[in-house]
Each structure stands twice: as C-alpha cells, then as structure tokens.
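Protocol step 4 of 6: structure prediction from sequence.
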Amino acid sequence: MRVVIDALIATLAPVLYVIIFSLTTFFVAALIGMGLMGGKMSYCSGTGAEYPGGRTQCVNTWISEDNGVLRPRAWLKPYHHFDTLPDAILSLFMVGTLEYLELLQRSMDITDCDLSPQEDSSQHLAIFFVCYIIIGSLFVMNLFVGFIVDGFNLHKGSSNKDIIFNRLSRQIVDHRPRPKTLAWLAPSNAFSVWLEQFLNGVQFQVFSALCVVINVCFMLADHTDPSPEFTAIMDAQNLFFFIELGAELLAYLFAVGPGGLVDDLWKNFDMFVFLGTFIGYVSNNKDVTQFVKAFRLLRVVRLMIIIKKIRIILETLIKCIPQLANILVLLFLVYSMFAVIGVQAFSSTKYGKRLGPTANFDDWPSAMVTCFQIVVGDAWHDIMDDCGVQPPECTPVFDSELFPDYGYNGPAKSFGDCGSTVSTLYFMAFKLMCETIMLNLFIGMILENFAFITDEVSHSEEPNWDSGASADQILELVHIFSAVASLQNETGDTMALENLPQLMNAMPLPLGHRRRDGKLVYEEKDRIITRMIRAELNVIVMDNRELKEEVMKGTWRGWWYHKLQGISLASSEDVPQVTFKDVMMTLVYWRKPNLVPELRKMARSARVQKVIFVAHCLTLKESLQMHAHIRKQERENAEKIGTVLKPGKAGFQLSAKWRSLQ
C-alpha cells in the first residue's frame, strides 16, 4: 500500500501539469469547434421545418405520428453543443473519453445558423473529431499513464545507485526464507529423501506433464451429444487421471510431509482439484464434477513455467497480487467518497434516459454499482445529463402551494426531483480521478513489477556486487542463513544473534568472509566491520524489545510500527533473534557501503551514532569478560600451588540490558 500511495503522491505534480496541458488543449480545440459549429447544431422539435427551413418555420403546432398528439414546435439545442466555451469544453471532454458518436452525427448534419440540419451536409467536420480524438484522447489522455508509470519508477530511485539499492532491498524481501508449516512432521528417513529426489527428477516431471497434456486434450475433445462409446472413454480417462493425481499427491505426502504440501502453492491447487473431483464422485453430482474439471485446464499453466519468458509473465502477475489488493482498497475508498457525494446530490433525481433502475444514486450500494458501470464504459454522459435535469422538466419542490403549475397534488415535501447544477463537475471529476488516474495505477504497478523481474533475470552475476546481486546469489545467501539458523533449531527468517560469526564465515564475499575457493579472508578491517555489524544488530534487537513492550501496552506507536510499517518483532528474552532482512541489510550497509545511496547514509546518521556507542559497550564487555577470565585463571593457578589469594572487591556487574548484548 505504501508503494502505491508513494507512486500516487509522486504523480500529483506532473499530473497537475498534464491537467493544465489538457485544459489548454480543450480551450484551443473548443475555440476551433465554436468557430466551426457554434450556433449551428439547433433543430426543430417537430416536423414541418425541414431544410431549407429553419427557425422561422419552427412555429405553431405539429401532430406526432407515433400517438397522434398535437404538440407545439420549439427550436431546441442538443444537450451537448459548441455554442459557448464551457459547453464546448464539456463536449470535447466527452469526445476525449470516446463518447463521440452522437456529437459526430449531429456535426455532420449541420447546415448554418438558424437552419434545420440536413443529413451528411457537413461531412468534412468529421475531420475535426478525428484529429481531436488522435490528439486529445489517444495522446493527451495517455499522458496520465506515462506520468503514473513514471511515479512508480521514481519509487525505484532517481539515480543508478538508488535503483541498484532498491532492487537489492526488494530481492532480500522477496527471497527471504519462509517458515515451514508443520516442520516437525517433515520426514527425514532415507526412503522419503529418495522419493523426494525421484519426484523432483526429470523423468517423473515429464511423466506428470504428459498426463496433464493428455487429460487436457481429452477435455478439449468433449462436445454436445456424445456417443455412448465416447462417453465411456471420457469417464475412463477421467477416472484414470483422477487416480494418477491422487497417487502423485500421496507420494509427495510421503516425501515432504503435510507441511511441504501446504507450502507448495501448485500442490495446493492440485489438492483442490483432487478434493473437488472426489466430492463429485462421492456425491454423484455432475455439476460439481464439471465445475472442478474446468480447473484441470489450469494445470496446463504448470507446463508453461518451463518457458522462461512465460515464467516471467506469470511471476509478474503473482507479484502483482498483493499490490492489486492495495489498489483495490484505494479504489474502494475513492469510489465510496464519490458514491456518498452522488447520493447526497442525486438521490431524489427523477429517472431519465439512462438514470433508472439499473443506474441510480438512490442509496450507497446502488451508487457504488453506478460508479463501477461508468468506469467500465457505461453511457456516463447520459447519466450526467439525467442528473443535471432542471425545471420545467422536473419539479423543484413537491409543494403544490409553492409550485402549483407542475401538477403535483400530494402532501408537501422539502425536496423535489430535479438534479443538481454541479453534475457536470461531479462526473468530469469522477472520470478524471477514478478512471484516468486511479485505474492507470494497475498499468504502472504491472510495468514496475515486470521491470523488476526482467532486470533480476537479465542481471549478470558479479563476484563483488558492483551493480547489485543476482537472484541466484541472494538464494545462496538464503540457503546459508537457513543452514546456520538450523543450528539453534530456528525456522523461518530468524536466527540467533550469537551465530553471526558462523554466518559470516559461511557466506561468500562481499558480504561474508569466504572466498570462492573456500578460504577465509579476515583482516583487521574485517574485525572492525564485524564488530560494527554486531553492534547494529544489537541495536535492532533492543529497538525490537522496546517496540514489543509498546505493542504489549497497546500504544499507538507500537500498533503503527508493527501493523502498518511491518516491523518484525523477532526477539526472545533468552536468545536474541534477528531476521534475515535485518542481517542482510546490515551487512550491505557495512560490507558494501558503495551500494548505499547518499540520502540513505544521511538518514542513518542517528542510528550510526547509537551503533558506535553500542560498539564501545561491546568492547567494554569483552574487556571485562577477559579480565574476569584472567582473574579466574590466576586464582586456579594459585590454588594449585597452595597460595591463598585474598578476595578482592566484588566484580563488575553489568545491567540486564547490556548483558543481553551478543
């Protein structure tokens, strides 16, 4: 959610410039439209004033051919025209949203001022609309997409160092080790190990893929009114592949245990298909079986991950899901705001051409549905016209004493069925904010995730990480971290702080001390940097403990950092714990400072001062421990030679807070 909000905030200033540019385009095009069509789109309400007649002939009455009713003639303007500058801008805004058909037809029929229209008498005016659609819709409106995408790119960083650091930070978060579900039930016998290797082998994977392909081909061959022989073949193959899928899941259960099945998303999908098919067989319900069989077609997606480019697209879509939920929440809030305003302004408006049972603002749920219909392409301009209806086409107030000429004879009420004069501003703001800006957040999010994945895949490995790390290098660190964490029977993304030396000795350069040939590199500067790394991790542990106390007390600060900021509280009273993200980012700060942007270094100045203080405390603690060890050895040696050592003063006592330093 924070990434989406940051991207939206980053686009406010450039979007404002785009709005100003769009208004300038509207203004210029509106002046041109007024010069070409101003005062020429009026028409007579009845027959008898056809071209070359016009306003002069549009008098008296006429008889409607539909129902034979005698009606008065009137010289009318259409709802949308180019007679005034505001009306011309509104008309062009409709054209920019590709609601131009009615305007285009009327413009091609105009003749001259105060003359009735004639079909296709001004076809050349269609060129004006075509040019404006190209400039105002396909170009100007899509500028919003460009700046929103640029807002997501600004989140990646403005310099090359920012981009590399932000990509590395995201890699650490995305690839961090996850806690294993039901890890205590994971089998460790030789048969399970062999079975897991066999199931993950190439031969079994090819066999499983062929089963999926054959099953999908049979399902695609299904048709209406099949013969009994074909039905028997389909039933037999469905039963065979159902048994094959069940045997495959059972084999994986013996190989990795129930936790391994739960942690594997594809296996979860296979279990869903298997259980649904099983319910269909047990209940003998063909509707349930047919419904689940449709999901079997999605198993073919598993075959597509073999192709690298398709796998990139799938990974992009999967990574978009969390941000998709954030954008949907943001859209829901904005839509709710406009829905509430619509209910307040148009809830009592009379139904019209489009405003009716399927699109109205009678209550909040109906207003939300109407807003969604407008966004997905409903005739928003007709709803806008209906919501802006004014007297004499509506009753201002239902009161026969105040308005006796409107035909209302019921009890007096404080409202009428007229619309609001702000309907034009309301619908233009809604289209601009909710459709042009908010919906394009999806495009920016997808492109941002796609760029991250393609950069990660195309990134070449460098031993010194001068341009960041590759995905394989991060995964190597994840495996080492998990192996070191298992020394204390820890699972997930936490590790005992006391295992930091083992971790750094096991990790390769540049974050660790091990070279690719297996030799350790540990110089004087490495000793100093390691001490600073230990100090910062101790600071993180102490901050987490303070934050944990805030959370337990129920303070606003604790709730904000734990829930909204996602700060981990991985810490134990007995054994201090640190997360994978904290360890890796700390190693990057001290082992690869050239990857850290200058602004990030400046923001860490207060933390670094605290780290230096804790480093001095660690040095003092080690000195006291060494002094106590030497005194103990001297005492033991003195006892061995029979010398009585006089008891000295009480030893130094460390506070509980500093005794927790590792």
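Step 5 (inspection) to follow. Confidence is low (pLDDT under 50) at residues 562-567, 643-660.
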